[in-house]
């Protein structure tokens, strides 16, 4: 009832704000990796991915997918940067759709990979882990769908009795249905 309604409103607002901020972060980060939205940031990322790609190169080479996922042979790992950017951009958009859970799980996987990459090159993995915790928080504070419309304080009037209930009118009860015959009774028809 009444106590859960304000809490539900607050939960809905925080879930919406958090989802909006995460979506914005991932769309902008993905765009910076795909294109040179901000050339300074894009150049920094391109230089950083030369190191990050070396972490994943041995693992991806084992399955023979390095030219699809990581690099075209130039060892710049621009394809890796582009692929991660596409995943982040697409998942950032999907955070605003009914496919939010798929987007969150995809981004959590990418963030775990990013945390491992930062750790492997000697950088602190705090930011990817922080984003991972916000992603997981965004799906845990998501409120359940409303089963009934939210009521306001003026809607919470005590229920009134209908006019017919205020009068002492005795109405007859409806007739009782006839009981079913027991199973052991003989059938009322003959078999031929």
Walk me through the topology.
Layout lengths: L3 H31 L4 H24 L3 H4 L8 H17 L5 H21 L5 H15 L22 H4 L26
What would your notes on this structure say?
The protein has helices at 4-34, 39-62, 66-69, 78-94, 100-120, 126-140, 163-166. By secondary structure, it is mainly α. Helix 1 (4-34) packs antiparallel against helix 4, helix 1 packs antiparallel against helix 6 (126-140) and helix 5 packs antiparallel against helix 6. The protein is elongated. The termini are far apart.
Label this structure with key terms.
192 residues, mainly alpha, 7 helices, 60% helix, 0% strand, elongated
What's the shape?
elongated
What level of helicity do the residues show? 55-70%
Q: How would a textbook summarize the main sheet?
A: none
Count the E strands: 0
Structural class: mainly alpha
Query: What gyration radius follows from the Cα positions, in whole Å?
Result: 31 Å
Order of helices and strands: HHHHHHH
Integer average pLDDT? 80
* Helical segment count: 7
Q: End-to-end distance, in Å?
A: 64 Å
- In the predicted model, the low-confidence regions spanning at least 5 consecutive residues are none
The proportion of strand residues reads: under 5%
